[in-house]
Structure formats: C-alpha cells, structure tokens
Amino acid sequence: MADTIRATVSDLQRDIIHELAETFSDCVNEDTKSLFKALMQIHRKTGRKFFIIIDEWDALFREAKEDTQLHLEYIQLLRSIFKSGQTSQVVVGAYMTGILPIKKYGTQSALTDFKEFTMLEPGALARFIGFTDDEVYHLCTKYNLEFETARKWYDGYFPDKTEHIYCPNSIIEAVSNQRFGSYWTKTETYESLKTYIDLNFDGLRDAIVRLLGGKRCRIDNGTFQNDMTSLSGRDDIFTLLVHLGYLAYDINTEEVFIPNEEVRKEFIREGRRPELAKAVRISDKLLDATLHLDEDLVAEMLGQIHESEITPLNYNNEQALRYVVITAYLSAMDHYLRFEKLASGKGYCDILFLPRKASAKPALLIELKWDKSSDRTVSQITDKNYMHVLKKFDYEGGLLLVGINYSTASKKHTCKILKIKDRI
C-alpha cells in the first residue's frame, strides 16, 4: 500500500512496527524505525521469539527490476533480520516463497542461512510444486478427460524423478472447461525477455528453435544472479525461464527442455515470436510435403533450412545431417513421438516419428546417408528390416519410409519416400 514503490521498504517496517507496538504494549520504543530492533525490544521484555513468513519475497525484484538501490535497501532489511548476531535469540524460524531464488551477489547468496528449494533443485518438495500423476489421473477419471492427453499438454517438469509434475492451474482450467488448451498465465516477466529472443542474444532464438524440435540444451546455471536484469548470456536467460516455468530442467544432465505442449505453444504464438512462428510454418510445410510424398519439395526445403542461421552450415558427418533433419521436422512434435538410433532388425534406424494416439498420421521412418543415393537409403530400411522396430510399440498403422541423402560434391539433398500401404 506504499504511495510509491520506492517507499515500500520504509513503509513496510513502519507498518509492522506499528502493529507490534499495538500487540505488545510498552515493549517497543516510540522512536524505533528498525524492524529487527523492534523484535529485539519485545524479546527482551517478554522472552518471546518470532517465526517470520514472507510470501513472494522477490516481488520488488520483479516489479521494480531496474531499481537496484531499492533492491539493496530490501536485502539490507532481510540481512538485518536473518544475519544479525542476535538473530538466533529473536527468530526461531523463517519461511519465504517466491519465483526467484534468493538474490546472489557474485557467487554468494545474500542470505546464506536458508535451505533453498528451487525449480532447479526442488529436492523433497518436488511433488508439491504441482499436481502429481495420481492426482491428475483421478481428476481425469472423475471428469471424463483423456489422461494421456493431459500428460502431453501439462506434464514434464521432472521427467527423471519418480513423480510426474503437472501445472496445477492448467489442469484445473482443463477440468472446468472440459477442454485441453493453453491456459498459461501470461507474464510481464516473459514479455521482458522478448528483446533478448528477437535479437538472438547469444544465440538464444536459435537455441529455442532447437528446443521446439524436441532437443535439449545444456546450461550452466551458476552465473545467474537471481534477478531480472543481471543477464550476461543465454544460460542466465534459460535459467530464468526455468524458474518461470517456461522450461524444465534435468538435474542429472544439466539440460533444459520444453516440458509440454502448452508451453511449446506459448513460444511459437503468432505475433509474439514472429521468427519462431516462421520456423514452425516452414516445418509445417515440410511435414505436409513429406506426407504428400513430394520428394523434390522435401529435398529443396531441407536445403533451405540447412542454409538458415539456425543450423550448422558445414556438415561434418551424418550426425550433423541428423541435427538439421530433426530441427526441420520440429512441427512433427505436435503429432508424433520422436526416437533416434533405435536398434531394429540388422542395425539401427536413424529417426522414427511414431504417431501419438490421437493422431491419424502415418509413422515416419527416416534413414540418413552421406554421399549415397536416396533410393539406396530407402532400400537399406527394408534390407535391414528396420520396420521391425514398430512391433516394439505394437504399432499397426500406416508407414512412410523416408530416405534422405546429402552430396558433398553437389551440396544438395535428395529424398526418396516410399509409402507402405499395408498395415505392419
């Protein structure tokens, strides 16, 4: 209720000291302006200790993100309470919540005596961050919603943990509306990152395109200062997006990824991310050309995507070719699950796009070659019985065999697509 946000810290102390003086009469000196001094005065006369709860501790870092002087004033208030030599005499415990972890200066936390649970390291509190598998399954059963669709839309924040964690607000909205969709709460914080994305700051936009294609990106989260302005590189922005819920983090591999369909749609929404939306439109066209067996257009578009700034211009091996193809088919993630280098038959199939349950599209089995013929690439799929891999998934739908070759001499891609009409 401060008249100006600049007066928040002083008003906060004044108002709480006033409440304390009313509650503990004859304990607080009239000229006391320090909150911690007021707590000490009460303790000396009553022996009482305090448990302090602060909700949204980081509000000033988000609402007044450019006012570093206000941040320092606020941190000094917290330090006076929690890092004083008399803290243990007066404060029995504290509980603080917020989107951001406690502010760091350099490599050190401003408040070192707290045990922190964050979106990077949730520890034992991971299952309380959102709804769990069992809770969502119960809700879907009770309200007649498809559980697997709910998982696709809202799951994904801690995939390597025992628990699957879902965005709770989105689940409630889906239940209330009886419809799966994007219920993400638009945040000013994310909007403030638009400039970094649009300018491709430190390769940020290119990396996001790769994430949209289902890839992961390893980050160093140690440089993040836990504020909205000290962003020195792509890793800091990705770390911030993890705390905001726009990316998930795998603590074992130190990689970020897009957790689910709802968040993915936020990144590519037309009008907010024109460059990302453009990449998706190109990928949509490529997927459509593949499904319509337009081999020449597929080859041409792969060449265009290879020459774009989001992929390595110089192929070194088939791994680089695989990277470009996966990036090119990022739209396939709307309809397919992607698998790479699966053991099958007499070898390993390069890429398998397996249709999701709700999709009527055929499976895509893609084989990549280097300085070969695309016809030979497709024949290798049949010769080595790569189609056998589909039996592992009990898949019996349609199938397209897609052979893609890159010629180092001509610097061009060629493509051969074979439609398998019979059910596998």
Outline:
This protein has 424 residues and is α+β, with helices and mostly antiparallel strands.
Description of the structure:
This protein has 424 residues and is an alpha+beta fold. It folds into 3 domains: 5-109, no CATH class; 117-272, no CATH class; 274-420, Trna Endonuclease, Chain: A, domain 1. Helices cover 40% and strands 16% of the residues. The chain is built from 17 helices and 12 strands.
Q: Topology, please?
A:
Blueprint: H1 8-23, H2 35-46, E1 50-54, H3 59-63, H4 68-82, H5 87-90, E2 91-96, E3 104-105, E4 108-109, H6 133-142, H7 147-154, H8 168-177, H9 188-191, H10 194-198, H11 204-212, E5 217-218, H12 234-244, E6 248-250, E7 255-257, H13 261-268, H14 274-291, H15 295-307, H16 318-328, E8 336-344, E9 347-355, E10 363-370, H17 374-383, E11 399-407, E12 412-420
